[in-house]
Write the structure tokens for this entry.
Amino acid sequence: MSALLDKMQLSPVSQQLRTVALYRSTKTYDHNEGLSCCFRQWRADDSHCQQIHGYALAFRFVFATRRLDERGWCLDFGGLKAVRAWLHEVFDHTVLVAADDPHLDEFERLAGLGLMNLRTLPALGCAAVALWVESVEVREHSGNSAIYQEEYWETASSI
């Protein structure tokens, strides 16, 4: 085996990896936030999701760092006021429609009549709505959620 590793110019895994601490903090904006919105996934032509339907959304943000700040914190939650305000602007009693929805002009007409607070997004669905945070979980209700997560790879020399 070591001959194979030498030929591939690899060393055993135990020599390559080092243990690195990862600290996490979470912030949840639960269903009691009142983020009730409607949306339509027009491409779901084989599903009832193509029709306008609504959910009381909940969001769970997971923040990660390798080094805590001088207070021993991963994140100062006081800095999230803009995130909460954005969530309310986009998801509080709004109708979400994809920018390429073939009936966008009708939604805009209804919004012009004051019948809805329209938000046009590049894409729709929990997965599409999901900031470096480690992951964001969006829950439609207790049974359905989607998680967006980015992975960052570092070489052992940069850790």
